[in-house]
Amino acid sequence: MSRIRDAAIMAGRTVRRLPLPKAFYTHTLREARRPMPGGGVLKRHAVDVEMIDRTRCVWLDRHHASNGVIVHLHGGAFLSGPFPGDWAWLSRQADAQQCAGLLVDYRTAPDHQHPVALEDVEAVLARLAGSGALGEAPWVLSCHNAGAALALAVVRRIRDGVGPLADIPEPALVVLMSPWADLELANTGMTETGRRDFPQERRLLTLAAQSYAGRTPLDDQDLSPVNAHLHDLPPIHLSVGTDDIFLTDARVLRLQLEEAGPEVSYREIHGRLAFLSGLRPGEEMGRLLTEQRAAIAKALGTD
User: Fold this and answer.
1) Which candidate, 164, 190, 194, places its Cα nearest to that of 251?
2) I need a surface site. Which of 1, 55, 83, 212 has the fewest CB within 10 A?
3) Cα 239 to chain center, whole Å?
4) Which residues form the Alpha/beta hydrolase fold-3 domain (predicted)?
5) pLDDT at 30 over 90
6) Which of 160, 68, 92 is nearest to 122 (CA)?
7) Reading across the β-sheet that carries 55-60, which strands appear in turn?
8) What phi and psi values does residue 191 have, to the nearest 5 degrees?
9) Burial (CB count <10 Å: 0-12, 13-18, 19+), residue 167
10) pLDDT above 70 as % of the chain
11) Phi, psi (rounded to 5 degrees) for 219
12) Are 274 and 246 in contact (CB under 8 A)?
């Protein structure tokens, strides 16, 4: 029996490592997409959909914008999103601060390649700044997964006064969650804990990176912020799960940020920090949300 069991275990491990059809990866992510929040969020907030330039945006409690705005860039490997966890996180934080939340539903690959998503975010921020929504009160930029690459490109461009972001006030805080900071995936093969391997997730991300980048080299600093100059950025709260494929990316990014000079708060939680199916329950996630809430309150001046 032990031989049969061992053979079954080895067969299972082999099957998990076999490449799947490309369509499987993209279909799985797209099926998880939730363009509108679920019923619980709809009950707690006034929800408004607005097209800004070519970008679909969804407001939570826009009437609270005078108290501050949390602008959220969802994850989804540039192929999909937002997910239930994006809505749950934004709802919880906007509720806690009694401020407005804005989810930017930027366009994704394969129909829209770089720099479309970045230009979408820039256009939204430029319009908000022009209308006074980002000027009358402080604002926070939050992001998860692929959204982190966009967020770090945006704050660098605000710092440098580039293009439509030249006159935009910088965010009072950037909240990075499980950031995808290196589209070359140089670090995702490292299993620092010795407990995890991610063959299917690496394949998905490899396909996603190629699909989104198009002809742009993957080491371009607007795609892979680990290759960018990260000095003179606003305060940053960075978090990751110890079972996340981006664990090493987050640790490398933390060191780079600390060396570059921005104020950095860092938190690792056990398990995964994933938004695909919603916010993970548990004490550690609760502590992280509380820590983020305090950082956002300090940034918005509501503490």
Assistant:
1) 190
2) 1
3) 11
4) 70-271
5) no
6) 160
7) 47-52, 55-60, 100-105, 69-73, 139-144, 173-177, 236-241, 264-269
8) -115, 85
9) exposed
10) 87
11) -90, 5
12) no
Both structure tokens of 27: 């279909």
Cα(301)–Cα(303) distance, integer angstroms: 6
CA dist list (Å): 87 to 91, 104, 200, 278, 302: 6, 11, 26, 8, 22
Model's pTM, two decimal places?
0.91
Interhelix angle 22-32/199-213, rounded to 10 degrees, is: 90
pLDDT at 14 over 50: no
Q: What backbone torsions phi and psi does residue 48 show, to the nearest 5 degrees?
A: -130, 135
Distance CA 150, CA 93 (A): 21
Residues 286, 269: Cα–Cα separation, whole Å = 10
Polymer length of the chain: 303
Ordered alpha helix ranges (H), 33-173: 39-44, 84-97, 116-131, 146-160
At 159-177, the pLDDT tens digits run 999 889 988 999 999 999 9
Strand (E) or helix (H) holding 144: strand 139-144
C-alpha pair distances (Å), 140 with each of 22, 35, 47, 157, 194: 36, 21, 19, 16, 35
H or E segment to which residue 60 belongs:
strand 55-60
Q: Averaged over 33-43, what is the pLDDT? A: 95
By DSSP bridging, strand 139-144 and strand 69-73 are parallel
Q: What is the mean pLDDT of residues 55-67?
A: 97
Q: Please give the structure tokens belonging to residue 9.
A: 């275990």
The tokens 């916010």 sit on which residue? 279
Residue 280 pLDDT level (bands cut at 50, 70, 90): confident
Cα–Cα distance between 179 and 252 in angstroms, integer?
11
Q: Which two tokens stand for residue 5?
A: 């069991």
Q: State yes or no: pLDDT of 202 exceeds 90.
A: no
Residue from 71, 212, 222, 107 nearest 154 by CA: 222
